[in-house]
Design goal:
The protein has nine helices and eleven strands. The chain is α+β, with helices and mostly antiparallel strands. The chain has two domains: about 160 residues, Ribosomal Protein S5, domain 2 (2-Layer Sandwich), CATH 3.30.230; about 120 residues, 2-Layer Sandwich (Alpha-Beta Plaits).
Length: about 300
């Protein structure tokens, strides 16, 4: 999927938005609050590959899903897309929030550790604010997003960032160039709650200081001294995660790891073209797996080409 902008005006009262996959390059679990929420420190980037959301004014509210992973998407109010619509409507009031049609193209696996549902919700919040003509930028949308889930404000930002707290304390990382990435999911959904519940330790060390300048080599070296504290527990539940990482290594990944709570894994490649060749190699060997070559979104002012 080629993506150059987050939002496209597709006519009066309509918008098309990209919902980018969130990749946790490193994820340290540093504590747990009395209310049960885990404290984290995570370096996250967002990829140009992801889901797609179309929003348009309509005679009545409507929600449809298409795409490879549509069968796994609930169509009732348990879906974060509809929760986002209803939360924004509640915040803005019924007079300014007429009925809308929302179409979701689901290209990312469900329950796969890349924030797909949260990114869909973030795209819906931003798109509805535009379609409804609300004077609400990301700063006003973020608290509404946080009420839906800790990942939603992160997905609203959709830039290289470090997330702390429960994922709601965000620091954008400057001068972060685009990365060549291959995403691999062996087709095994993983419950985030189950992975956190299986952790043997929740008071781990925070992230080390970031390198002064970030390029492929300095980032890879930094990642070598970081962790995903959820990976061991997730691999115990789904051994196929280990096989996905092994295939990324065999295809020449400079660094491979599981993202989030799994089961999607990423491989870091020096250029986008090298990533495409690696993805083709893995796809040929594992045709039933989700495999995507993509690039991450660079921070503002950084090199967007790899």
């Amino acid at each position: 999927m080629s993506q150059t902008t987050d939002t496209a005006d597709t006519g009066i009262g309509s918008r098309t938005l990209h919902a980018h996959a969130k990749i946790n390059l490193a994820l340290h679990v540093t504590g747990r609050r009395p209310d049960g929420y885990h404290l984290i420190e995570s370096l996250a980037v967002f990829t140009r590959f992801g889901d797609r959301v179309e929003i348009a004014l309509a005679d009545s509210d409507d929600f449809t899903v298409s795409g490879r992973y549509a069968p796994a998407v609930p169509l009732d109010v348990s879906n974060l897309v509809l929760k986002a619509r209803d939360a924004l409507r509640h915040a803005a009031g019924p007079d300014d929030t007429p009925p809308v049609s929302i179409k979701l193209e689901k290209n990312l696996p469900v329950a796969s550790g890349v924030g797909g549902g949260s990114s869909d919700a973030a795209a819906v919040l931003r798109g509805l604010a535009q379609v409804w003509g609300l004077n609400m930028g990301d700063a006003k949308l973020a608290p509404i997003g946080l009420s839906l889930g800790a990942d939603v404000p992160m997905c609203l930002a959709a830039k290289p960032l470090v997330a702390r707290g429960i994922g709601d304390e965000l620091s954008v990382v400057p001068d972060f160039s685009a990365l060549g990435l291959v995403l691999v999911n062996p087709g095994t959904p993983v419950s985030t709650a189950d992975v956190f519940a299986a952790l043997s330790r929740r008071d781990n060390e925070p992230l080390p200081p970031m390198p002064r300048s970030i390029d492929f080599h300095s980032l890879r070296n930094w990642l070598e001294i970081t962790r995903n504290d959820l990976q061991t527990a997730a691999m115990a539940m789904q051994p196929a995660i280990g096989r996905a990482i092994s295939w990324l290594d065999k295809a020449g990944s400079g660094f491979s790891r599981m993202s989030g709570s799994g089961a999607t894994c990423f491989g870091l490649f020096e250029t986008g073209n090298v990533a495409k060749r690696a993805a083709a190699e893995i796809r040929a060997r594992q045709p039933d797996w989700f495999v995507a070559a993509t690039r991450s979104i660079a921070s503002e002012g950084a090199d967007a080409q790899t």
